[in-house]
Amino acid sequence: MAIEYSSTSQLENVAVKGCVYGPSGAGKTVLMRTLPGRKVIIGSERGELSLSPANQNRIFGDVEDIPILRIKTAAELREAYEVISGPHGGVF
Question: What is the Cα–Cα distance from 50 to 60, expressed in whole angstroms?
């Protein structure tokens, strides 16, 4: 396999991608809200109440509507990834 050379000047459609993992109540969801740009929550637990409109307004002074994809299995995680990274992923 040949090494592929590139540089940051060749990047297009740059987006921050990340995964926040931790125990319940650690603040993962509220941390995610502080990131700039478009976001989507892929969650297996129902811990999004911290981002209810009333709570967002209290913490941040505004409200951001963030899409949520609820998953239960690894297959659903793969499907969610394909949706957000595919050609129609820009809807999120």
Answer: 12
CA distance 81 to 86: 8
Single-letter amino acid, residue 36: P
Residue 63 CB neighbours (<10 A): 13
Q: Is residue 40 part of a domain?
A: yes
Give the C-alpha distances (Å, rounded to integers) separating 7 from 3, 10, 11. Answer: 13, 6, 7
Note the pTM of the prediction, 2 decimals: 0.66
Residue 41 located in a structural domain: yes
Report the domain count for the chain.
Answer: 1
Show the domain range for 77: 16-87
pLDDT tens digits for the chain (92 residues)?
566 665 656 656 555 577 788 888 888 888 888 988 888 888 887 777 888 888 899 999 999 988 888 888 999 988 888 888 877 665 55
**Counting every residue, how long is the chain?**
92
